[in-house]
Request: fold
Amino acid sequence: MEVIRQIAAAKKLLREESSKGRSIAFVPTMGALHPGHRRLIEVAREKADLVVLSIFVNPTQFNDPEDLQNYPRDEEADLKMAEEAGVDMAFVPTVEEMYPPGFLTSANVARLSSKLEGASRPGHFRGVCTVVLKLLHIIRPDYMVLGLKDAQQFTILQHLLDDLCIDTELTGVPTVRERDGLAWSSRNVLLTKKQRRQALSMYRALKRTHFLVKKQGILHTGELLQAVRSVIQTSGAELDYAEIVSRVTLEPLDHVERGGTYVLLAVRVGKVRLIDNTRI
Amino acid sequence: MEVIRQIAAAKKLLREESSKGRSIAFVPTMGALHPGHRRLIEVAREKADLVVLSIFVNPTQFNDPEDLQNYPRDEEADLKMAEEAGVDMAFVPTVEEMYPPGFLTSANVARLSSKLEGASRPGHFRGVCTVVLKLLHIIRPDYMVLGLKDAQQFTILQHLLDDLCIDTELTGVPTVRERDGLAWSSRNVLLTKKQRRQALSMYRALKRTHFLVKKQGILHTGELLQAVRSVIQTSGAELDYAEIVSRVTLEPLDHVERGGTYVLLAVRVGKVRLIDNTRI
Reply:
């Protein structure tokens, strides 16, 4: 596995590979790799000849400096896991390499970016769109593989790619969960045992909505959200938001539209903020 | 010359050409082609195997609906001139093709975009950056050729390309002038004889600054701007702005820095707004 830290070197290597007709699949990450990332790499392997993984804790998508500072980092372990999982090139730029002095550009997807995570984390998706756009210009991948745990991010980036006619096909990979059902997240390592129990209420709440829809035929989202809120609040976790929205527009729905609906949750346990979702 | 109106068809044709190793030079325009554009096409011809010209009156860069409505359009004449000048492909999309329902994405270069033209035309450069970024993804050119009459636009787009690591080399072409010295602009056809005389005060003012700097050694920008304002105001044209700025930061300078300075002017004559500049 090549480890590349400079943009120019990454471009040179990847353009050579492309000119030989080799296809590229790209997995953007912020490091602290876990089995969810490993699954993304597996999917990328199936898609293309060459798998590029980026590791970059992007400061512009953190609205909270403390969250940025506490974000887990372990480059050595990440590179080991990436190599074992079959990554061909790890792109690991510094902040200065990605945002040199005088950097002024941003990309944004209006409306979709200001709700849900965007409402709780102002500027978050502007940071995500900008860094992903830059990475796409550097890597020029045929495929980009993203986790569906970040459902809103997936919808926004699909919109960005479509609006700007970018030649990269997006693939969303279903959330990988730990044994107890907690969605794999780099932030899980920050949880105490008690906080972890509280965080698990998200998973229980999502299972509960499936039960209510499928076994009891409840489609009214007000009723479903009441059940979700009750499960979360009983656990002691602090609910940030619970919404049931269209997968395409991310607008709240009055009634579940089967196949096209997300239940989206965000909670705080102590200083850690976690998200989870399910598709109905 | 191929005339292509669909994004998918343009991509297909151009990717085939690229895969054969042919280089592409791109000239983005809003049509109403004049000798200034012809010069851009000539420069593009020298750069690459294939010249692509886009003709698209981009609504999102007009802050004034009346300006958009009055903007001159003559597709037939444009295509004739493009073919004669040696364009290989004219890309002429509709507004619906470029901005389908649900389009939400924008790109922006902060700071540089909010001053000068950006202050007079809020949102103008956001519109320019967004449409150029989209066109670059469609065309994937090796070179993009732009006129330096739009000096601020050139600086902003160079910044956009650098910040986002886009593999396109930018070339700026010096302003082409009509016989009397008026910079070629698609809007010149909208001028009455009297307005044209007033508009010419920009050219006289720019020549005056060169005279004052070169023959009289005046470098203090306050003194130079006073002379510029006097020439414009005497003509009866309404001065929008006159500024002497750094070519890189577009920040006002106290003293001319030879080689790195722009004198930038914008005036209104009747309902027509025109810009011009010179580099010192």
Summary: The first strand of chain A starts at residue 2 and ends at 4. The longest helix of chain A spans residues 124-139. Strands of chain A lie at 2-4, 24-29, 50-55, 89-91, 105-109, 143-147, 169-173, 238-246, 261-269, 272-279. The domain at 186-279 of chain A is CATH 3.30.1300.10 (Pantoate--beta-alanine Ligase; Chain: A,domain 2).
